Here is the input.
Amino acid sequence: QVAVALKEGRVTPTELCQRCLSLIKSTKFLNAYITVAEETALKQAEASEERYKKGQPLGVLDGIPVAVKDNFNTAGIETTCASNMLRGYISPYNATVVQKLLDQGAVLLGKTNLDEFAMGSGSTDGVFGPVRNPWSYSRQYKKKSVPESHSEDKEPDWVITGGSSGGSAAAVSSFTCFAALGSDTGGSTRNPAAHCGVVGLKPTYGLISRHGLIPLVNSMDVPGILTRCVDDAAVVLGSLAGHDPKDSTTIQDNFKPFELPNLTDVSKLSVGIPKEYHAPGLSSEILAIWSKAADLFENAGAKVVEVSLPHTRYSIVCYHVLCTAEVASNMARFDGLEYGHRSDMNESTESMYAATRREGFNDVVRGRILSGNYFLLKQNYEKYFIKAQKVRRLIANDFVKVFRSGVDVLLTPTTLSDAAPYMEFIKEDNRTRSAQDDILTQAANMAGLPAINVPTALSERGLPVGLQFIGHSFQEQQLLTVAKWFEKQVQFPMIQLEEVKRHDHGVFQHQKSASFS
Amino acid sequence: QKVSVEVLEHLEHLALVDFRDAEGVERLQKAIQFADQLHEVNTDGVEPMDSVLEDRCLYLREDDVTEGNCTKELLENAKEKVEEYFVAPPGNIPLPKLGERETFLQGS
Here is the structure.
């Protein structure tokens, strides 16, 4: 809708940019952004305006404000990964996906907050503080009365965004941008998408370039897309997907951007319901929503079948080993010599490295590095690392079997419950939380399959609940078509932000356009 | 079984990252315990999987120089440099042995 408005001249890119920038300022308490690139954004908006005046926009994304998670390299803009290790690090180059967005004329508003180095499921463990879920401030959220509320924190009931791309999800959910990039290694895009009520797409591994995305687990990382509706996700996907000579793990097949058809007949569709996703800890609310969704498909004529992915419950353990192992390797590059934080310790190379890393990494990161090194020790390699790789194959095969039997998409919950209040979330440590929260999203990363979170309904507390669709490898078109049909059926309510309403009402009206396509 | 102090030191040395306190060690113990669940799975005859794209050929480009000469930009982020060199403190000096280092591991 916004792209059409830009084309017709009803609003100009600079106006749009300025409104987003001021909205970012008024929603600062959400802590969604680490860096706001005000000057460059305005310049990009002005350039875009020139193009629209000449009637030569670069494409649908020209002039559209976007945000990027702070683990993507952005030339000239600080990239921190929410860690002390990279504070002050100004990237000398743009990640391929960032470059692609800029080449399409998108306006980069800033870098969003995350868990340190994308490790976590709450966006609470970064050095810049936790991100607050915009729904905490919505009219729809029913605050629980907290008897022992501390007086320093005015809103002790605010809920987390989920992680680790919480900043991006919050930014999209609070209308400060129209699309945001996240990353997804264990569910890091879909988890916050579910908690913040936005669409979170994890593309097939190998479809979108990882060049410039600071790596966590090279064999599972993918850039994720967060938008307010499925059509928008398809548009962004269209501009980002495709082979990149700078990333050898991108496939060489030709990618053709697609428009999503308006599906009306689902009678030829086969939806699989994996019974193992009825995991321990799944809230009865979400179970009910999941069942309702399955019924929805059945009543519309689709074939809904129960399927089994027997190794589901081992995916978290497998992930734990493979992730820590790859992390141990990937974090080795941070030694203070070429970039990033450097300790003052100067006695020897090794002691400088050790001190730099002690000062730069938080407990979560260090814990994972140490665990990873343990699993990679000669005496443990076969027992843990190779074993995990074998289990990985079993998990991937589970999916292959199910898809080969005729199932088109799988329908599962995305999270075990709605967003938890921050005060409760921090009672357990990061690893425990990640292990609990990633359980439903992790397997898709293990198998490299595309998956998408579609906001479905509000919980009893008035918070978003999303459902996940998992599709065949490289069949994003089919996956998104089904997701779009589902989105239309459920009519997820729009967030009613109280704080923002006090702001210029006219501004809010424009921001309210859910989609930009 | 608990991880021995030798292994803990070895890990700290390999990773160049410290456990910092008993909590750090406890975290490792729990991580190992968690990972032990893997042994419940029967993986006889299963090949380890390195990549989900294993059935495809990796892309290799021609060995031509297409970019480079960005020394200045690359050096900008380094804290200590001299001309076009990154400066490191002297190497070949091993980390102080456990006895000389202040580490809580001494107590365990």
